[in-house]
Each structure stands twice: as C-alpha cells, then as structure tokens.
C-alpha cells in the first residue's frame, strides 16, 4: 500500500546543530566534509571577482537565442518555467516527455536551456511542445535562468494564476505525474513543493515548485527578480532555495510539501530494511534500531538527512514519488549503499522507462554510461 498524497505545512525551525553538521550528514564523514569545505571556499573565492563585476550591473546574461513556440499560448494563465542543461547539447526523450506531461496538465511552458549548442532538430521539437524556447549561458543555475526569462514572462502573460518552476535535475517520472500536480493544486493558494529538507533550515527543494494564486505568484516573481545571482553555486543555494520558503511564509503565504520530512522519516523508521540502510549510511545512525520510533525521528531531526538522497527508496516505493535525483545516481556524494540498484525501482510501465533514463544520463557527459 502506498502512502496517500498529503500536503503538510513546512515545519517551524528547531534549535539544533549548525550548517556544518547538516553537511556532515550528507558528506558521510568529517574528512569528506572538510574536503567539501575546501572546495566551497575555493568556489566562493573564484566567484567573488565575477560577483563584484555583476553587482554593478545587477543582471545575469540575457538569452542568446529566443523563439516563440509553435503555439505561443497567448492568454495562458498557467505557466511553467523549465530549466535544462546537457553536456552534449541534446534534449533527451525524457525531457521531452516531461514537457509533454506538463503541457497535458495545462501549463504553457517556457523552456530555458543552458547548453552551449543544441541540435536544430531538438530545438524545433521543443518548439512544438512549448510556448517559448530560450538558450542562455550556463551561469546562475536554475534561479539565474528563471530570473533571465522573468521579464519576458511578464510581458507575455503578466502575473499568471499559477507559476511552476521546474528543472531537469531529476530522473523520471517513474510514476504518473498527473496525481502529483493535482495534489499540489489541492492546497489552494500558496507555494508548494514535493520534498521538504531541513538541511540548512527548513525549505522546499527547488526541482519542482508550484505557486498558486496571483498574490503568491507575484511575490515569488518579486523574490526571483530581486535575487542576486552569484557565480558560486553554494552561495546561490543559500540565497535562493534555502531562503525562498521562509520568505514566502513571512509574507503570509501557505508553504507546504507533498512529501514532508516527518512523514518520510517515520515511514523509513517503520520499515526494518530501510532502518538498516540508514544505519549503514552514517555512523551517527548506527544505533537507530535500539530507539523507539519517536526517539529515532528526533535523532533524524538533530542530524537531518537529504530526503532525495537518503530516503529515495521510501519516496519511490512507499509514496509513489515520481523522481530520483540525478546527482544521487551519477555521483552518490554520501556513498549511500544500494544506489546502483536504482533501475530495479523503475516499474516496467513507468511513464519514463529505465532505458529512457539511461539515455538522459548519457547526455550529461561525453562518454556513454548505458549498460
């Protein structure tokens, strides 16, 4: 039996460990965390000169190419902004299928690619699925891309009733996406996401965010439009994804996740096999099987996990979560056990079958990784 879809409001922050401890849970060991800290420090220092130059202009680079779709969807009231990147420039069949599903859900799509060169056939195929297609430099990640195209969105559609922010950092859907969209829409006005993370403070992970209601959408657009887009990925995540949900709450909007952290944690604790995997994932969780359900949950609040990494099986199997994180599959930064088994969790009748997901992963690097 799958858990029902249920929007749960974002939790209030608890007193707990600092940001470094959160990073420790994702990194797996203090040694890997120290290595990551050095990498972040280097990245921030390299970004600083670019950020100083940009601070005078306060803008990200504009699109290098932009064309309306075959159907420009004039008068649309539901807009999706989809950010794409491929090392090879290809727009995979998985991405096209995601766009098709969003179109079927009633969204006019603004497609933004940050690939250097896109095959013309792929470009034209996407024009057939989207209201607007743009290409820009690979700077500023998803929030930079959304910010770049925001003025054009305003010009064409003003403030829509719904604004969906999406990126291709996930694989799938491996389960139908239509019930997911319907569940997000059931929350009324506000900001809604799929997964809630406590790492760095409670926030919604930004691979799929839906704002509903013109007031909520207008405030989301204000946040994106006024954001300083750093060249540093780490700084940008702190200023954008981690701040956004709290910023929206402070303006009186409902903020909720379809797969709240507490629900995922308690489902994992209740499953003996999942408990064992969590115990094997980190030394701080080695005694999880000796704790009561409440004490185990409290431990996972003190040492919060990344739900799309540590709890990916729970998401896909117990909650019919539609996506798996691409970074987890390609890099597995926390050295989590069993990640290589991910194809076993893609149903034969999945909207995007395993072969399609392998093909998408292949576009992310020069060599092939398909089995």
Short description:
With 371 residues, this protein is α/β, with parallel strands linked by helices. It contains 16 helices and 12 strands.
Structural features, described:
With 371 residues, this protein is of the alpha/beta class. The chain has one domain (1-371). The chain has helices at 19-27, 30-57, 93-104, 120-127, 141-157, 178-185, 214-226, 233-239, 241-250, 261-270, 272-281, 293-302, 307-310, 312-318, 326-330, 354-362, and strands at 8-9, 65-68, 78-84, 108-113, 132-135, 162-167, 170-171, 190-197, 203-204, 208-212, 255-259, 324-325. α4 links the parallel β4 (108-113) and β5 (132-135). Residues 15-21 and 367-371 have low confidence and may be disordered.
Residue fraction in strands? 5-15%
* Mean pLDDT score: 88
Distance between the termini: 31 Å
Assembly of the depicted chains:
single chain
**Structural category:** alpha/beta
- Overall structural domain count: 1
Q: What overall geometry do the principal axes of the alpha carbons give? A: globular
What percent of residues adopt helix (DSSP H or I)?
A: 40-55%
Number of strands: 12
Gyration radius, in Å: 20 Å
Low-confidence stretches: 15-21, 367-371
Q: How would you sum up the major sheet?
A: 10 strands, mixed
Helix tally?
Answer: 16
Helix/strand order, N-terminal first: EHHEEHEHEHEEHEEEHHHEHHHHHEHH
